[in-house]
Amino acid sequence: MGNINTLVEHFGNRLIKYNNISLFEFDRVSEPNKRILLEVGIPDCRSISGVFTPVEKFKTINKNYFVIQSTNIETTFVCIELSTNSLVLYDLRDNTSSFINSNLEIYLTYIKIDEDYVRDIRSPLKFGPYTRDTYEKYANYLQSQFEKINNDYSRDIWSNVLEQMSYGIF
Asked: What pTM did the predictor assign?
């Protein structure tokens, strides 16, 4: 959890800490993920791919998905998958989940990277106007930042985000 101080500094007062989590399923959340929920918190954040808001009250879906954030799509939630303790995006419409990150600390690190990218690279148009000629440069830069952490970017959600960025969708 050496990266935690950097995350706390980055997210600051956007972090929502939880005192008491009384759901039976919380016992199945890994200790590192529990520590972040109780001692660090979950931020309200806007990433390239959406808006993520900490839930006011925890709930589980199908007794295997511990909901931690709602999204700008009312049927989709960021959850801790209790069988793996990885972060997934769960969609109630078709009861499917898509891998986001291997744990909560990595998830918050990726969100920080995403927010830094928007502030420092995308918003000032560091690689020139955001056009067909530069989409891939922007996507490659963000991927290079994720590569410094781990290879979670190569699966499901982040892979889709990077691919859509390279086509100019995001």
From this structure: 0.92
